[in-house]
Specification:
Blueprint (H helix, E strand, L loop, with lengths): L1 H21 L18 E4 L5 E5 L2 E22 L7 H4 L5 E8 L13 E4 L4 E4 L3 H6 L5 E7 L3 H9 L5 E13 L4 E2 L14 E12 L3 H47 L1
Parallel strand pairs: 7-10
Antiparallel strand pairs: 1-3, 2-3, 3-4, 3-8, 4-7, 5-6, 8-9, 8-10
Helix pairs in contact: 1-5
């Protein structure tokens, strides 16, 4: 029984690691949804600023442009992440997640798969050692999007989004602030770079058009559960047998003492 558990643990742990390393790989160009080749839609609007509340903090949102974008998630930053301390420090609970997206010309060839994308609290970075990929990549088809969400259903959907997902976001490019002194604006063009170049979107609609390798998601979860369960069983059996061995080792000593007395 113990050997079976050991083999189960080794096998499930191996599957867990392999599936974890592969499940978030970016899809090939032939797996890209056609809408992701479109350019973002943007149009100026005249909507009065409004307020919304999160965790007892009242935020003022000022919509500037109607905005609609399709994109491939290449990286993200979750405001609830262990290393993401800025949102809590500044009382920014409306911005729940940042999605780094690419679209259009960047998805027509597999060059984007030669890049490493990463996200920090307020920024998204890309790098590559491939010169051809670097010169083909279009920085105006790449954006970091701060998502402001106060609808519970949308919030759950946004939080489930991860690298490799193909998404559709609609809402408003907006400025926002709260009375604690925090405020943030938004980029209104895809041509800028550096500080202030991120799009701040008050989200009114969100779709995950295509998941990244859903079968591997299931395999990752099942193998992780199997590895954890078998490991706990092995530990439990170890302590049971150790305890039994100690109890058995003590018995002859007691009997021998009785014989001597």
């Amino acid at each position: 029984m113990n050997n079976i558990l050991k083999y189960l643990f080794i096998a499930s742990a191996a599957v867990f690691v392999i599936s974890g390393l592969t499940k978030d790989r970016l899809p090939n160009p032939d797996g890209i949804v056609e809408e992701l080749l479109l350019e973002p839609y943007q149009e100026e609007v005249e909507i009065e600023e409004f307020t919304t509340e999160r965790k007892g903090i009242v935020y003022t949102v000022n919509p500037l442009y109607d905005y609609d974008i399709y994109g491939l998630v290449v990286s993200y930053s979750d405001a609830r992440g262990f290393l993401n301390i800025s949102h809590k420090r500044w009382g920014d609970y409306l911005n729940i997640k940042d999605l780094c997206l690419i679209w259009g010309q960047n998805l027509r060839t597999p060059h984007y798969k030669k890049f490493k994308f990463s996200s920090r609290d307020w920024m998204c970075l890309y790098r590559t050692r491939d010169n051809e990929a670097y010169f083909v990549f279009r920085s105006d088809k790449f954006s970091n999007n701060h998502l402001l969400v106060d609808d519970e259903a949308l919030k759950k959907l946004v939080r489930k989004t991860r690298r490799g997902d193909q998404v559709h976001i609609s809402g408003y490019l907006s400025k926002y602030s709260h009375d604690g002194g925090f405020s943030r604006g938004t980029s209104t063009t895809r041509l800028d770079n550096g500080n202030g170049a991120c799009e701040t979107i008050y989200v009114t609609g969100f779709e995950i058009l295509k998941r990244s390798r859903p079968a591997l998601d299931i395999l990752f979860a099942v193998s992780g559960l199997a590895a954890a369960t078998s490991a706990l069983a092995i530990i439990a059996i170890f302590f049971v047998y150790t305890g039994a061995a100690r109890k058995g080792a003590g018995a002859p000593d007691v009997i021998e003492r009785r014989k001597k007395s």
